[in-house]
Amino acid sequence: MAKKAIAYFCQNCGYESGKWMGQCPGCKEWNTFVEEVIDKKSVSNAGKATVHKAAEPTPISAITAMDEKRETTKMSELDRVLGGGVVKGSLVLVGGDPGIGKSTLLLQVCKNLSDQNFSVLYVSGEESLQQIKIRAERIGEFTDNLQLLCETNLATVREAIERKKPAYVVIDSIQTMYNEEIASAPGSVSQVRESTGILMQLAKGLGITIFVVGHVTKEGVVAGPRVLEHMVDTVLYFEGDRHESYRILRAVKNRFGSTNEIGVFEMRNEGLAEVKNPSEYMLSGKPTGAPGSVVACSMEGTRPILLEIQALVCHSFFNNPRRTTAGADFNRLNLLMAVLEKRLGLQLSDCDAYVNIAGGLKMTEPAIDLGIVLALISSKKDIVIDDKTICFGEVGLSGEVRGVSMAEQRVQEACKLGFDTCILPKVSLGSIKKTDGIRLIGVANVQEAYEAIQNRGK
Hints:
It is a single chain. By secondary structure, the chain is an alpha/beta fold. It is built from eleven helices and 23 strands. The strands form five sheets. The protein has a nine-stranded mixed β-sheet. Strand 1 and strand 2 form a beta hairpin. Helix 4 (154-164) packs parallel to helix 5 (189-206). The N and C termini lie far apart (86 Å). Mean pLDDT is 87; it is low at 40-50.
């Protein structure tokens, strides 16, 4: 009996080695190598000389650039994240935690596309036809333009795609597909890499748009080799707590649009519903007359989002005071507290500090610095910030409040939701032409921001 060939692959970057290693030489990650069986048939011709046809380069001036053709999914939040719609012949990877709603989202996309008389093929390797039908009945009525296939053999799936030639294909999920020419198990590095390569050839060769569902690891990234994300055109992450009703769709890679846009959805019994105004949702339930609470404005792509920043500062009974953040950067909190203590003389070294962004969103934009600073001051000094006051601005180590981009759009969003006062960087005042009656208070440093909330405080 012939001895099976064994190789080791890095699950993070796909690096191949003849022996197990603790650290990957390619990506420098530890304990990522897995053992796989190599089929010698697939490499039997590797040593034979092959004559290749000479490739002829094309001058760039001879190439005609054309705008990519997009089709709307009838889901404005998804179209926003994709850059205006689905590009024909693209390969889109959708990742997320189990039970977050990836399959529900794509099934709703299939319904909308089939209602527009596009032929859609939904390939499931995890659910039976009856299970998909039960989920589809909760979403609504489907036309016969949507066809279902329960299969994990990639050769069978490829034959069905080439025979039916649908406009759109959904693969749920890539980790369940297997290629018979690869000896390793489904979900392994080799299987995921080869399966994605075949799907990419189908998408580009036949002009078919393919959505691929990917499982994620405990670190929150798509399982499998990192090359998987490099091969596809767009990578979308569906985020949120599965026990909460709201979900965030975020693009981390997009060859046809911006990677800064987000889409907000609400999970309901009948499926996912779009949240047209995330700011209104983020501010729902905001307490009135409570110190330590302030409304700030952050930008996600071209969309301004108003959010409530909460802070709780209290005397610590431990030698090392606690610092906790939810939705904000922990190191940024420590930096801002050091700025307040040095530049404002606020005694915080013996205090516990807790900062929370209400609603479950994670924000890293520096424009929320001023909101965190004012929330900390409000809680420490027991000052109630007026409910109709909003703020934004970046805070530097010298205590200065620096300007941020798209200041006018932030002010307009505040006007839309009924705010009458905005505390913002003084350098940004000149870029705002239209105020709609809102009072603008420009501040140059944290001392002036402190005085502004003192004058507005109750």
